[in-house]
Amino acid sequence: MKKLVNDPLLIVEEMIEGLLLADGRLTRIEGENVVLRRDYAALAASGKVAIISGGGAGHEPAHAGYVGHGMLTAAVIGAVFTSPSVDAVIAAIRAVAGPAGVLLIIKNYTGDRLNFGLAAEVARASGIAVEMVIVRDDVALADDGGAVGRRGIAGTVLIHKVAGAAAEAGLSLAEVKAETEAASQALFSMGLGLGACIVPAAGKRGFELGDHEVEYGLGIHGESGARRGPIAAADVMLDRLLDRLIERGGIVVGDRVALLVNNLGGTAVQELSVVARHALQRLGRAGVHAQAALVGTFLTALEMPGCSVSLLKLDEGRLKRLLAPSAAGAWAPPTQPVSAIEAVSLPDDVHSDMARGAAWATNADKVRFAAAIAAVIAALEQAEARLTELDSVVGDGDIGISLSRGARAIAELTPRLDLDHPAAALRDISATLRRALGGTSGPLYAAFVLRIATGLAEAADVSRAAAWAAAFRAGVDGIQALGGGKAGDRTMLDALLPAAEAIERTVGDGAVSVLSPAVAAAEGGVEATKTMHPRLGRSSYVGDRALGHPDPGAYAVALWLRAIASVV
Question: With 0-12 CB in 10 A as exposed, 13-18 as middle and 19+ as buried, what is 548?
Answer without folding.
Answer: exposed
